[in-house]
Amino acid sequence: MAKKFSELVAKMPKEYRAEAEAMTQKMLAEMPLDELRRARGLSQKMLAEALHIQQPAIAKLEKRTDMYISTLRSHIEAMGGQLEVVARFPDGSVKINTFGDLATEV
Length: 106
Known about the structure:
By secondary structure, the protein is mainly alpha-helical. It has seven helices and two strands, in the order ααααααββα.
């Protein structure tokens, strides 16, 4: 007989549940664009409509490993998010604001 996932989790030792939660949060904090889109409950077609482009362009964009920051920004904003560029160094992090006014300059 199948058991509910919540029942299985409840039987797990606390340290395993904490470890699983930490892994879940790490996976949610780092994901490719296609997974992010799906996690936000959007189809490629829905996102394409929001960006006023064709669905195949979304598929192509999600496979790219290199793109303009403005392209990435519009993609993220169409999903309801906000893009921040952060440089991380051994002695601290710096938010790069050079790209902050791209939308108003275009």
